[in-house]
From TrEMBL:
<feature type="transmembrane region" description="Helical">
    <location>
        <begin position="6"/>
        <end position="25"/>
    </location>
</feature>
<feature type="transmembrane region" description="Helical">
    <location>
        <begin position="146"/>
        <end position="163"/>
    </location>
</feature>
<keyword id="KW-0472">Membrane</keyword>
<feature type="transmembrane region" description="Helical">
    <location>
        <begin position="224"/>
        <end position="242"/>
    </location>
</feature>
<feature type="transmembrane region" description="Helical">
    <location>
        <begin position="37"/>
        <end position="61"/>
    </location>
</feature>
<dbReference type="Pfam" id="PF20182">
    <property type="entry name" value="DUF6545"/>
</dbReference>
<feature type="domain" description="DUF6545">
    <location>
        <begin position="257"/>
        <end position="377"/>
    </location>
</feature>
<dbReference type="InterPro" id="IPR046675">
    <property type="entry name" value="DUF6545"/>
</dbReference>
<keyword id="KW-1133">Transmembrane helix</keyword>
<feature type="transmembrane region" description="Helical">
    <location>
        <begin position="184"/>
        <end position="204"/>
    </location>
</feature>
<protein>
    <recommendedName>
        <fullName>DUF6545 domain-containing protein</fullName>
    </recommendedName>
</protein>
<feature type="transmembrane region" description="Helical">
    <location>
        <begin position="73"/>
        <end position="95"/>
    </location>
</feature>
<feature type="transmembrane region" description="Helical">
    <location>
        <begin position="107"/>
        <end position="126"/>
    </location>
</feature>
<dbReference type="InterPro" id="IPR050039">
    <property type="entry name" value="MAB_1171c-like"/>
</dbReference>
<keyword id="KW-0812">Transmembrane</keyword>
């Protein structure tokens, strides 16, 4: 069991360090965002508790300080009531008005201070004076009334904060207008629920020892629930920051792919009507595949394709054979071919209606043109029209 903790807890500490450093980037000079400060404090406390939870570290702390089970006290104070209160304060500032959040923050800080004081007193009173260190402090001493009271106070304070985190996260996650905040709150609720399993497991130890059961037999629940819990908490509480960046990166990727898919159609339209392009077609593949300023470049490409198709209207029949991408691609290919062969136009060229739906938005138009471009490229490859 110590081997499992020696692997999982350092990984958990690393997750807390990553989350702490990531949120530290949001700190601005003169900024005093209470939610951000609370998150930094929470990840710091939780990270320290995971470092202390690593068996070799907690043993080293006890040996260096000369105080038995001091590492266990640090784990419970930093990783229990203190961290859950800090996480809760951050969420309170997200979901409540400033005045309400400040009042609840004062209440939480007061309750946490009282709980920490009581735990310190019980920990000191529970020292049997033997000077011997317990590898599993709570489980090996749960049969002793003072330590049992310490354990129950610890899990009650920790669990109460987790229950409130779950309640607020689920309640306000449903009504949040920001998608990534909603996802983050739901993820946070899942992490807090995993930690509740740990709290219930610890509380059950008090009963188990009275029934002559051995809580160490299922101690694997501790590192597993902690590992799952901190993973979801760290992801959920930082998600409102990195989530929108992820969406923006995905949008840029989609725009880049759409830009490439439109290239053949756009290039042939530019060859037929050079004036539609703000800049001439790229001669270098390196320039074409460069991702710089991709949102603007895609926007320009869409406009220029629309202008190019508009310029070819005199070479098109009055009505397309259906409003499908294949039908429009066939019309465009035939019109480009006619324009490049300098087919003589009638004195009164026919007019055609636009293929663009009147209620289409930009994203819909990009999707529509990508479909036309794909069908057009297939026609060109088949040698049915267009410039090779």
């Amino acid at each position: 069991m110590l081997g499992l903790k020696s692997v999982i807890f350092p990984v958990c500490a690393a997750l807390c360090a990553i989350a702490f450093l990531y949120k530290l980037l949001d700190v601005r000079k003169g900024s005093r965002d209470p939610a951000l400060i609370a998150l930094l404090a929470a990840f710091l406390c939780k990270g320290v508790s995971f470092v202390l939870s690593t068996p070799a570290v907690s043993a080293g702390v006890d040996r260096f300080s000369g105080v038995s089970n001091l590492g266990a006290l640090g784990i419970h104070l930093m990783g229990g009531a203190s961290s859950s209160a800090a996480f809760l304060i951050a969420i309170v500032h997200w979901v409540h008005p400033r005045d309400v959040a400040r009042a609840r923050t004062r209440m939480l800080l007061t309750a946490t201070a009282l709980c920490a004081t009581a735990m310190l007193v019980l920990w000191w009173a529970g020292d049997d004076g033997s000077g011997q260190r317990s590898q599993h402090y709570l489980l090996q001493n749960a049969h002793r009334p003072v330590t049992a009271a310490y354990l129950l106070l610890y899990v009650t304070a920790f669990g109460a904060g987790l229950v409130e985190i779950i309640r607020l996260s689920l309640r306000y996650g449903k009504v949040s207008g920001r998608a990534w905040l909603r996802r983050g709150l739901h993820c946070t609720a899942a992490g807090a629920a995993a930690y509740l399993v740990y709290c219930l497991n610890r509380a059950w130890a008090v009963v188990a020892v009275q029934l002559d059961l051995a809580p160490l037999d299922w101690e694997a629940v501790t590192p597993l629930s902690n590992g799952i819990g901190i993973t979801f908490l760290a992801a959920g509480l930082t998600m409102p920051s990195w989530g929108p960046r992820l969406s923006a990166a995905r949008q840029r990727t989609d725009h880049f792919l759409a830009h490439q898919k439109l290239h053949r159609l756009w290039s042939d339209l530019c060859a037929a009507s050079p004036n539609i392009a703000l800049s001439p077609p790229e001669r270098s593949r390196l320039v074409r595949f460069a991702p710089y300023d991709i949102n603007y470049r895609l926007y320009r490409r869409v406009i220029e394709i629309q202008d190019g198709i508009l310029a070819l209207r005199p070479y098109m029949p009055e009505e397309p054979d259906g409003a499908t991408a294949d039908a429009e691609a066939a019309l465009v290919a035939a019109a480009i071919d006619a324009k490049m062969r300098e087919v003589e136009l009638p004195e009164e060229p026919p007019t055609v209606t636009s293929f663009v739906p009147s209620d289409v938005d930009y994203a819909g138009e990009v999707s529509r043109l990508v479909g036309v471009a794909r069908a057009y490229s297939a026609l060109v490859k088949q040698g049915q029209g267009g410039e090779q």
